[in-house]
Design a protein that fits this description.
about 325 residues
Length: about 325
């Protein structure tokens, strides 16, 4: 956007309405006029970093935002330029925490160019009999305001150290966000790789493997006995020997993955383990999700405490193998 377009925008009725959404003007930065240093001609040479305030110190925005009750006092009585003596109303300037500093810069910029002073006084005189928006769009007041904007454009504008600082801060924020996104994506890929890649049995201590195998044999015998006596949970009463074997294979896969470093394996992790490390080869691959899902539900029922007893009591491979379990290791 050119400087001419900027002046016409901020000197117009709706300078904060963008193409798709309204400009966000909120910020937490607060400072007094004394925090802003200028060269005496309206050019800002030092000030605190101020974001989201492209209107700061712009005469065309400041004088257009003044309410009727304060405009005359601010323009006619130089002593009223002690800006904390009046308030703004009906515009975002009313809620701006840096309006005093903005006013100081706006007045200095107008005072730095004789033509601006003259045009501002002419507009103040021409708009005396109008109120509100009529001061800018009716008759002589409109022409005088346009002449004031033209004088600002012909002055060439003023510089502000804040513009460069805001751009630098925006680039720094953008770089940080990109770095955060890259780091987040890397962590996500690592987590996905860790959970989806099949773990190797070779990473499990032989003593843990033996403990899991012994417990699986014991639990298989319990399942077969329940099936013969038609006891236990309803979902397990009519299992045949092959179904019991598949149920045990799922439990072994989950337990092995837990001791191998995945304390909370998902269904897809268990399926991957079964494909690589078990003897379940007599079923189609498409059936594995259903088998695993049903087996996990049945395992939960078998491990549930009923009247103070368990069909499958809690089991820790580390304790069974005579090892010290990791902190917060869940029961299998």
């Amino acid at each position: 956007m050119s400087y001419t377009d900027e002046v016409l925008k901020f000197g117009g009725p709706r300078p904060y309405d963008g193409v798709e959404r309204r400009t966000n003007l909120s910020h937490k930065t607060e400072f007094l006029p004394s925090a802003v240093r200028t060269d005496g001609r309206g050019n800002i040479i030092d000030m605190p970093l101020l974001r989201r305030k492209p209107c700061f110190g712009r005469p065309e925005r400041y004088f257009r935002a003044l309410p009727d009750s304060q405009r005359a006092a601010a323009l006619e009585d130089p002593t009223r330029r002690e800006f904390n003596l009046f308030t703004f109303g009906g515009t975002p300037c009313e809620r701006c925490p840096v309006h005093d500093a903005c006013a100081a810069v706006a007045f200095e910029r107008v005072d730095s160019v004789l033509e601006l002073n003259t045009k501002l006084e002419q507009w103040a005189e021409a708009s005396e009999r109008y109120l509100g928006k009529k001061r800018f769009i009716f008759g002589p007041a409109r022409d005088a305001w346009q002449a004031f904007l033209a004088a600002i454009i012909s002055s060439g504008g003023w510089s502000s150290v804040n513009d460069g600082r805001v751009a630098a801060a925006a680039h720094e924020t953008l770089d940080k966000r990109r770095a955060d996104r890259r780091e987040s994506a890397l962590r996500s890929r690592q987590a996905k790789r860790r959970h989806t890649a099949p773990l190797s049995i070779s990473t499990i201590d032989d003593r843990l493997t033996d403990a899991i195998n012994r417990e699986s044999d014991r639990r298989y015998a319990i399942l077969i006995d329940m099936a013969k006596r038609k006891s236990g949970p309803k979902s397990c009463r009519r299992l045949n020997a092959e179904q019991c074997r598949r149920l045990i294979e799922v439990w072994k896969a989950k337990s092995s993955m837990m001791v191998a470093g995945n304390p909370h394996p998902r269904h897809c992790d268990i399926i991957s383990w079964l494909k690589h490390h078990t003897s379940i080869t007599d079923v189609q691959e498409q059936s594995l999700p259903t088998i695993v899902s049903r087996a996990i539900e049945r395992v939960a029922e078998l491990q549930q405490e009923v009247d103070g007893t368990y069909i499958w009591p809690p089991f820790c491979p580390f304790t069974a193998a005579g090892l010290i379990p990791p902190l917060f290791f869940p029961k299998c």
